[in-house]
Amino acid sequence: MFDLKGLIRPHLKDLVPYSSARDDYKGNDGVFLDANENPFGSITKENWNRYPDPYQYELKNKIGEIKRVSADRIFLGNGSDEPIDLLFRAFCEPGVDNVIINPPTYGMYKVSADINNVEVRETQLTNAFDLDVKSILDTVGERTKIVFICSPNNPTGNDVTLSRIEEVLKRFNGLVVVDEAYIDFTDRPSFIEKLNEYGNLIVLQTFSKAWGLAALRLGMAFCSQEILGVLNKIKAPYNLSGLTQRTVYNALENIETKDKMVDDILENRIQLKSDLECLGIVERVFPTNANFFLVKVRNASDVYRQLISKKIILRDRSKVVLCEDGIRITVGTKEENNALIQALKKL
Ligand code: PMP
Questions:
Q1: Residue 209 CA, ligand 1 centroid: distance in Å
Q2: Which atom of ligand 1 is found nearest the CA of 206?
Q3: What is the pLDDT of residue 50?
Q4: Is residue 317 within 8 Å of 104, Cβ to Cβ?
Q5: How would you class 161 by CB atoms within 10 Å of its CB: exposed for 0-12, middle for 13-18, buried for 19 or more?
Q6: Distance from the alpha carbon of residue 334 to the mean position of ligand 1, in angstroms
Q7: How high is the pLDDT of residue 239?
Q8: What is the best residue among 106, 149, 183, 315 to mutate for testing ligand 1's pocket, by most ligand atoms within 8 Å of CB?
Q9: Which end of the chain lies in a sparser environment, N or C, as judged by fewer CB atoms within 10 Å?
């Protein structure tokens, strides 16, 4: 049986979190003389003089309706990079515990582990960029706290096999993070549906990709109430700005706009793939379920640098394991994609 209590860092069990007087009074009207705010308003047209809701209840309720998950299973952070960092701080004892990642994958899992002085164990994806479950389970040790799985995976673009993720969820007695930053671009269902089945599951999603809100910094973690309780206890009290909360709340009325942008990106993805495949310089365009391609080209680093001099910026992944001569290309607008193809033709 999965037991979260055994995973929490011991010194956090009795932590008394920061509290404010607004924990005792939830109303919007009143004489607020508790938080040393400016009573007159702000220097901007809109007033931002009051601290924002620390638990973002209104926004979570709305996100919960859209994602079909109850608000008490949602953590909102400053990008999904915030919950990634908080998971280390909540569950991994520096210098003692370890986590498992599956390279090639998103770089922040390791950076966050390094910042927190937590050992990273690596089990490489298979040559088809799929999870190697046996290798993951063989790598698990007494002090392994978290396995990070990214699907669709960055930088390869593919979904890993869902049954393999479930196998890890079933057989690993620690936390399993399924990072679904690119979920809107794939056909497969979200693991949010599996939250009731697996108490050790944490699903990450973000507003930075399909929703087009990267600058607002809003990431989501969906998890059990118990895990949420731990994250809430250690997060900064006002981790999401009022501007972000209000802007995204209003933007959630425009789901059709997001859907239309995703449709356009998917359409452009088809065209970009066939255009890339016609170029002599391109050796392979890997299959993708995301809004980018991993593309194998001759002399990738040279291509990358030459394009930068033409102000076309790609992501050089050629030094990354299993991605030799790989470049990651985001699907842009038709004009942007054409500019890239024309520039590649001239190399
Ligand atoms: N997960 C993956 C797989 C990503 O590629 C990224 C961003 N590139 C993130 C998480 C972080 O997203 P955010 O902007 O929400 O911090």
A1: 8
A2: 15
A3: 96
A4: yes
A5: middle
A6: 24
A7: 97
A8: 106
A9: N
Q: Who lines ligand 1 at CB under 6 A? A: 79-81, 106, 150, 154, 179, 181, 206, 208, 214, 219
pLDDT tens-place values along the chain, 347 residues long: 789 999 999 999 999 999 888 888 888 899 999 999 999 999 999 999 999 999 999 999 999 999 999 999 999 999 999 999 999 999 999 999 999 999 999 999 999 999 999 999 999 999 999 999 999 999 999 999 999 999 999 999 999 999 999 999 999 999 999 999 999 999 999 999 999 999 999 999 999 999 999 999 999 999 999 999 999 999 999 999 999 999 999 999 999 999 999 999 999 999 999 999 999 999 999 999 999 999 999 999 999 999 999 999 999 999 999 999 999 999 999 999 999 999 999 99
* CB < 8 Å & 24+ apart, contacts of 267-275: 268/331, 268/332, 268/333, 268/334, 268/337, 269/185, 269/293, 269/331, 271/334, 271/337, 272/329, 272/331, 272/337, 272/340, 272/341, 275/337, 275/341
Residue 303 CA to ligand 1 center (angstroms) comes to: 25
Are the C-beta atoms of residues 195 and 68 closer than 8 Å to each other? no
Q: Are strands 175-179 and 144-150 parallel, antiparallel or unpaired?
A: parallel
Q: From atom 1 of ligand 1, which residue's Cα is the shortest distance away?
A: 181
Instruction: Give residue 190 CA to ligand 1 midpoint distance, Å.
Output: 16
Q: What single-letter DSSP state applies at residue 86?
A: H
* 287: preceding bond cis by omega (within 30 degrees): no
CA-nearest residue, atom 13 of ligand 1: 79
Token pair for residue 183?
């979920």
Residue spans of alpha helices (H) in the chain: 57-67, 81-91, 108-115, 133-139, 162-171, 225-234, 242-251, 255-277, 300-309, 334-345
Compute the distance between CA of residue 240 and CA of residue 258 in angstroms, rounded to an integer: 22
CA of 107 to the centre of ligand 1 (A): 9
Q: For atom 2 of ligand 1, which residue has the closest CA?
A: 181
